[in-house]
Amino acid sequence: MARRLAYRLHALDFEVATRAGIAVAVPLVTLTLLGRLDLALYASFGAFTSLYGRSEVYRTRLRTAGSAAAMLVALIAGGVLISTTGSNTGFLVVGLVAVLAAGVLLCRTLSLHPPTPVFFTFAFLVCALIPVRADEAGLAVLIAVGSASFALVVTMSGWLLRLGRDVDRVTASFKLLKPLPRRAVLRPRAWRDPAVWLNIGQLVVGAVIAGGAAELLGLGHSYWAVVSLVAVVPPVRAAHSISRTLHRTVGTIAGVVVTALVLWGHPPVWLLIAIVVVCQFGAEIFVGRHYGTALVFITPLALLMVHLSSPATSVSDILIDRAVETALGAAVGVAMVLLARFVRVGPEPQ
To answer: Transmembrane stretches, by residue range (predicted)?
Structure first.
């Protein structure tokens, strides 16, 4: 029994999760000490870089995580620019369509993991909709650049332990280290794959419907509906099963409940930062094994990031909006999954 438990624990991605936890903890602690936790969002979004390149050899990881970092910083900067103009709806919609298309193409071309543009979409929309003063826009982007750069360094840090050694021997010496089996396939012709454009169409049409419905219903934080839709629609050429979509929906709703329990007693800032780190750690432990379970951690992570940057916002409003818009986005996502069953696409281009 003990040996079986040890094997199961070793099978979990502790190395990846630890990197992710460090990548988000250091920028948040630094901003807290500087008294600028209001800029935590930009640091947290930059730290999303550590979610990419898991279990990849380092030459490949530098390409995937580096590309994700560049994409995140560009989207944060674009979102901040739109925010300084008053979150112009036209710019926001055009930008969202571009983000979804570019995100899907990047994920498919570089075989990114996570394989959907959910983190790209989240970073862009929140940065575009959260007000930022024009005189602090540059600082916000600079913080994102610093956080993404630090996360990239942390993501590549295991190279020092593995340098010049056989991976199995290193794993035996450092129990938390595992072999690096993943080879991210480069697909330069991904843009010619009809399944890619079907996926982009699902996300664009679904995002317009979900976001528009949230606005018509007068819900605040309408970006949650769009992010929820992107989270539940499967990636390119993945199985479009309703059960998987429901798992992701249930995971997101469970995450809202967890967040409500966390914020119920109005915990201090340091405890919230610790919980954010734990959520980032837990998300990485489970994201490669069961995405629905990972969303139980990802959802509180996202909500707590917003709360840390805007503590004056009503907690109950955030949670209610998140729950209702999650259901809305998930419902639209299920509709997109069902519609995709009636569309036949050809084989993947070689």
So the answer is: 20-43, 64-83, 89-106, 140-161, 196-217, 294-314, 326-343
